[in-house]
Amino acid sequence: MKRVTCLLCVLLAVTEVMAQEIVPFDLPKPSDRVVYRPHNPAAAFSIRNNVLYDATGTPNLGVEFGLGRNFSLGLAFGFKSWNRFLLWDKNEENPTKWRHMSIVPEFRWYPRSVSNGHYVGLDGLYLHYNVGALKLPFGLYPDIRDQRVQGDLFGAGLFYGYAFRLSARWRLEAELGLTGGWFKHQAYECETCGKPLGARSGWTLLPKLGVNVVYSIEKKQ
Known about the structure:
This protein has a single domain, classed as Porin. The radius of gyration is 32 Å and the shape is elongated. It has an 8-stranded antiparallel beta barrel with strand order 1-2-3-4-5-6-7-8. It has helices spanning about 1-20, 50-55, and strands at about 45-50, 60-65, 70-80, 95-110, 115-130, 150-165, 170-190, 195-215. A hairpin with a 7-residue loop joins strand 4 (about 95-110) and strand 5 (about 115-130). It is about 10% helix and about 50% strand. The longest helix has 20 residues, at about 1-20. The chain is mainly beta.
């Protein structure tokens, strides 16, 4: 019995020594743990400007609202109320007339997440125009070179783009697409006067090109 008691005492002493040498493992505090938070649609609101559209002399502005992690809705508006490229161009010898207004709603899908990487989308288009004596590149729309047309166009199309992150709030987007639309306008003999040549309507295709500078207004999550 004494031997058993002595053996138990020795085992307890060895266990106590080993316990003192073990370094305790500290579990991370709740504040140190990485907690996944799902995408917050309210954090994905942005304002953008298409610099290629600016290059045509048309001020424009667009907004985008996140609809979850992968989808968004947007609306863009462009307005040019003066005849020539620049607002202050008052050269009466320049026959060009180019006044228009555009409204473009759009729906985007981002495979990764809103505002990141590749995206594809659907867009609509309403265009009111008053154009004459305008020569476009690649021989596009030859009817407006020697006459003036005034009317409306309604269309829809597909587009693809890529969003490049520049910082936490700034990004650059490049996009291209194609829009099909139905137009109805009145044609006139020349850019500012002349008798009407009759109403015309039909279908046409419009290219979509954009280089957008975008600023995101995001709430911290």
